[in-house]
Design brief:
This protein is mostly helical and about 100 residues long. The protein contains 4 helices and 3 strands. The chain has helices at about 5-20, 30-40, 45-60, 75-85; strands at about 25-30, 60-65, 70-75. It has a 3-stranded antiparallel beta sheet with strand order 1-3-2. Strand 2 (about 60-65) and strand 3 form a beta hairpin. Helix 1 (about 5-20) crosses helix 4 (about 75-85). The longest helix has 19 residues, at about 5-20.
């Protein structure tokens, strides 16, 4: 069984994937991601968000770039599959059934 902090992290990562899935060109700036997470009740510091983006990048779920020290994240096809519940990755929550 996962700890409560692990569940919070997994749900925040799923929220990031969901936000990217809804974005134009499946891409968001880290500032926009922070605002959107906060509006969903999942506020995260810049360091925490960047750690999640790096982890999601390492799993192949997003492409995380830092062109000018500011992060951009783009959803990958694999990340889209996880966001839709078509595949699973330990460390990312599964979406709830509609």
């Amino acid at each position: 069984m996962s700890s409560y902090p692990d569940l919070i992290i997994a749900h925040r990562r799923l929220a990031i994937l969901s936000l990217l899935n809804a974005a134009n060109a499946y891409t968001l700036h880290e500032v926009d991601l922070k605002k959107a997470l906060s509006s969903r009740g999942q506020a995260a510091s810049t360091d925490l968000l960047r750690a999640d983006l790096q982890w999601l990048h390492e799993q192949g779920l997003v492409l995380a770039k830092q062109p000018d020290g500011i992060w951009l994240a783009t959803l990958t096809a694999r990340g889209g599959d996880v966001q839709q519940g078509l595949s699973t990755v330990p460390g990312v929550a599964r979406p709830e059934p509609i």
